[in-house]
Amino acid sequence: MTPPDVEAIGSQLPLALRAPPDQRFERFVAAPTGLLDQLRALALGRHVDPIFLSGPHSSGKTHLLLAACAEAEAAGRRTVYLSLRGLRGRVGEALQDVAAELVALDDLDAVAGERIDEIALFDHHNAQRDAGRGSLYAAIEAPDALPLALPDLRSRLAQCARWQLPTLDDAGRARMLRARATARGLDFDAAALDWMLQRCSRDPGSLAALFERLDHASLVAKRRLTVPFLRQVLGPELG
């Protein structure tokens, strides 16, 4: 996967930097029924109908875009992942000569209303479709709710297979953390998990970042994830 860099468009980042092992389909929690199958089919070229994911912050949109790219890369297919955050007014430059079997464009809401960017997205969408290549999009809002300036782009995006991602509840957050711990061979004490969920941010993205911190600390200290260890690592501010 070779996405253009926000700061220096045209530079290449390896897959490992953009799609860490936790961002795979099998690590995703509470996916709507049928969504993962459709994303896998798109990633593997079994169909090329574009897909549009919407949902609130930290609902897992980026996770799924990167998981689709990882699945396609594992099958030997070329992919491009690009977040449009920070690219307002420069989408055309970022998408210049981008042609891959799967292109995943994240954070479309960041450029909504910028006509020049929307024209670039419209042209890119048509080029991907005409070449029989896959497109995957994500934004906080669905196409009909985005403040788009270009009716033709809204029409194209509205024709995508559209999926709304929910925000994880407490049970879903617990499953997410348990899955990450299991994947890494960590012993996450049940009481420690409950303690963490009661005191830390409920935002899944923040919880995932916090887990990375705990994972590293556990490996260094060679300790299980218990309440006393969490108190030691996270500090007295959490109680």
CATH architecture verdict of the largest domain: 3-Layer(aba) Sandwich
Q: Biggest sheet: strands, sense, closure?
A: 5 strands, parallel
What is the straight-line distance between the termini?
A: 42 Å
Task: Assess the beta-strand content as a share of residues.
Answer: 5-15%
| Approximate helicity band | 40-55%
Order of helices and strands: HHEHEHEHEHEHHHH
Poorly predicted runs: 2-19
* Rg calc: 19 Å
CATH class of the largest domain: Alpha Beta
Task: Give the helix tally.
Answer: 10
**What would you call the structural class?**
alpha/beta
Q: How does the overall form come out from the CA principal axes?
A: elongated
Task: Provide a short characterization of the protein structure.
Helices cover 44% and strands 10% of the residues. It is built from ten helices and five strands; from the N terminus they run H-H-E-H-E-H-E-H-E-H-E-H-H-H-H.
Provide a descriptive summary of the structure in words.
The protein is α/β, with parallel strands linked by helices. The protein has two domains: 15-164, Rossmann fold; 170-238, Orthogonal Bundle (Helicase, Ruva Protein, domain 3). It is built from ten helices and five strands; from the N terminus they run ααβαβαβαβαβαααα. The protein has helices at residues 15-18, 35-43, 61-74, 91-95, 115-130, 151-158, 170-183, 190-199, 204-221, 227-234; strands spanning 51-54, 79-83, 102-106, 134-139, 161-164. It has a five-stranded parallel sheet, with helices on both faces. Strand 3 (102-106), helix 5 and strand 4 (134-139) form a beta-alpha-beta unit. Helix 2 crosses helix 3 (61-74). The radius of gyration is 19 Å and the shape is elongated. The N and C termini lie far apart (42 Å). 36% of the residues are buried.
